[in-house]
Amino acid sequence: MRRDVDAPGPTNSVTHVDMVAHKIIFDTDADLEKPGVDDVIALLLLLASPEIRLEAITVTFGNSTLQNTFSNVLKVYGLVQQHILEHPHDATRFPNYARPTVLAKGRAGPIAGELHIAEYFHGPDGLSDISNTHPHFGAVTTHSSLTVATTEAYKVILDILEREPPGTVTILAAGPLTNIALALREQPEIVMKARRIVAMGGALDVPGNTSPVAEFNFYADPYAAQEVIQFPQLPLFLLPLDITVPHSVDFPILIPAHHDCSPSHTPLQSFITAILTRPRNVMRMLGEDDAFQMHDPLAAWFVIQHADIQGTALVPGWKAHRRMFRLERIGELTKGMCVVDRRGTREVFHSNRAESGVEEAVALRNLAQEGEDGIMVIVETPGVKELTDALLDRVILNSRAP
């Protein structure tokens, strides 16, 4: 079942610095020491975006261990600090860098099932093994704008949502949905105060990237993903592989042709070159195009462009369908799979005729209603070039793509 949503929005995305920035909680699996590569690029994009105010960074396991994710966040802040010291004129380009932000650790594993991480792609530290290959990009142990929380990440999420007025905070979930599920279990009414929850995860009509049928975030904690997507009336927007994979940016655009140790490179450019090296080699080994799939940066860009938008309205260029599916949690070959009912009969989702019989199945079909059922799934964006230009302008501080 799907229903188009393409509500009218403002003629331009919000870029006014003088307005009150919309508050964001960034829930990421950038390993307590080093977040995953696309998580890091998403974090840099958030730090460089005046439309939003980065209120908290909550970390969970995922691409690497929890400790690596936490450390990677500190490493990103240290990198921006190094860049600004060498290029003071760029200080204003990172409005969220110096703002007070809470950093909180979440669970080190899924709420149920076996722990899996993605070291094969992102390296043992979650950042292309940059700890060994480029030790000068070391993590700072502390940062003046970061306050390390003494409570678990999901409690920090609840504290912020409870403190702030309804509809003023967005949660951007770029990793497994473990922290979100835990928050829903404890105080669902508080989570419902969020303006929206934007999650990158799942694969509905395309192959998976971790198994033939599963995307990594949903594969890593399918129990959490199922609890989140089945929660009624949750203001959830999903960006699955269906939309993120087409938003790939050629590596030569992101990695300048000259060596990453060149004096002409800024610290940011050298860092991005270093962390993209391993994913580029993996993509080559897999026979893929020479391009980096911007899964989490696309989700971050959606949040930034909708910072001043309430409800389900979308700015021009973005489009969503409501989709219904369930998560396979224990399948030997299908763990993390988004199971879409493709029978076309409009029966109640996952009804089983072998158990209910044809007459009951028909009765259930007649009761099935179009409307507010299903998850809001992003199916169209303004385009790859707009995302690429945003990354070049705000993060890589380079010229725009042709």
UniProtKB/TrEMBL annotation:
It holds the Pfam family IU_nuc_hydro. The keyword Hydrolase applies. GO terms for molecular function: purine nucleosidase activity. Residues 24-350 form the Inosine/uridine-preferring nucleoside hydrolase domain. One of its GO terms (biological process) is purine nucleoside catabolic process. The keyword Secreted does not apply. One of its GO terms (cellular component) is cytosol. Keywords: Glycosidase, Hydrolase. Gene3D superfamilies: Ribonucleoside hydrolase-like. It comes from the Eukaryota. PANTHER family: HYDROLASE, PUTATIVE (AFU_ORTHOLOGUE AFUA_1G11790)-RELATED, INOSINE-URIDINE PREFERRING NUCLEOSIDE HYDROLASE. Belongs to the IUNH family. This is Nucleoside hydrolase.
